Amino acid sequence: MRVVVLGGGESGFGAAYLAKTKGMEVFLSDNGPIREKYRELLEKHEIPFEEQGHSEELVLNADWVVKSPGIPKKADIVYKIQQKGIRLSSEIEFAAEFTQAKIIAITGSNGKTTTTSLIYHLLKQDGLHVGLGGNIGMSFARQVADYDYQYYVLEVSSFQLDDIQNFRPFISLLLNLSKDHLDQYNYNYEEYALAKFRITENQENDNFFIYNRDDEMSINLLEKIEVDAKTLPFSLKTKVAEGAYMSGEDIYINYNGKFSMPVEELSIVGNHNIANSLAASLAGKILNISNESIRTSLMTFQGVEHRLEEVATLNGVKYINDSKATNVNAAYYALESMRSPTVWIVGGVDKGNDYSEIEALVRKKVKAIVCLGLDNSKIIDFFASQKEFIYDTSSMEEAVAIAKGIASEGDTVLLSPCCASFDLFENYQDRGNRFKEFVLNN
Questions:
Q1: So where does ATP get bound (predicted)?
Q2: Rounded distance between C-alpha atoms, residue 354 and residue 291, angstroms
Q3: Taking 90 as the threshold, does the pLDDT of residue 269 lie above it?
Q4: 142 in the same domain as 62
């Protein structure tokens, strides 16, 4: 079998490496430059590759094409692959074909990384042999090639789910839905939401689907979609007979026995993190993890970098890095959790954002807006009539300097951009790291 991999990043290298270890003929093609780290790995493992363009004669003679999630589905080469009827898969689909491990897959518009990391922490604390992958760290395919884990906890995006055929997690979680990546889904919210729901399309009645009882779009679509897996809800608002919920100052898990603990003992704060903790605990109960292990894990888990990460308190001003907030809903959670007047750094590549969703919160919580991006006109136009202090910047150094100048003792400076990072930064990690660098550089 000839496998062609499109994209030479972590996901692409992992897929090519796995194909090579399985004795397949493999070729990797990247339309842009391949980072030195991955070029060296490809050469080390004698995997033929090309960069700075796709040679159609080398791509379109494949039996199976594995596409990295960063390649737009509307790309010309993708169209030609589909026209030829060649199987086109994501790396998670490809890797899943070569492991018998139980897969716990997490998707949603927000909270994926935190919940995925929390479930991994929970399983590892209980002594299970588990790998962490998907959009986090080492690619799923690379781990399947090199390790023999019994469980994989995978953060999964809609772009990865667009290109599955047989991918079937033992447990799937859909945390929430909000308008994100609409530019890739014809600006149609339901089309994007249905892409997320593909996480459960191959599940059978011995599998589990955990969903958010409070999420309006999820509930609407569940009425239309036939889910064969056992469905288990979690809720911050409603008591559920079977599932997980918050009531008063405690969380409760009712499945495979009962578990409860006070909210104040959770290591991560905010309503969104209570919801993430409910979903993760429910997955733990399905896997027969002890109540004591769940409790310990929820008390000891350290939040993920770039997600409401407290950087420092300088001259009485708290600085928070929420660079991972690349959509309006994520910024909503961040603003909702603010307890002091906030200088808000926002901006980047707009993905079809509707800022009216956070309008009331901005009026209530934000004392000044610092826009950070190459084109901030949409944000400035929307909030111009509501906030006296709005600043237009095009570098992190300038944005942080202005924020430091505005903030008073007792305030918070919050980087929660609402937007993708690719106008000024390599990725959201680069953006968050630059923020921390300039905050700490007095």
A1: 108-114
A2: 41
A3: no
A4: no
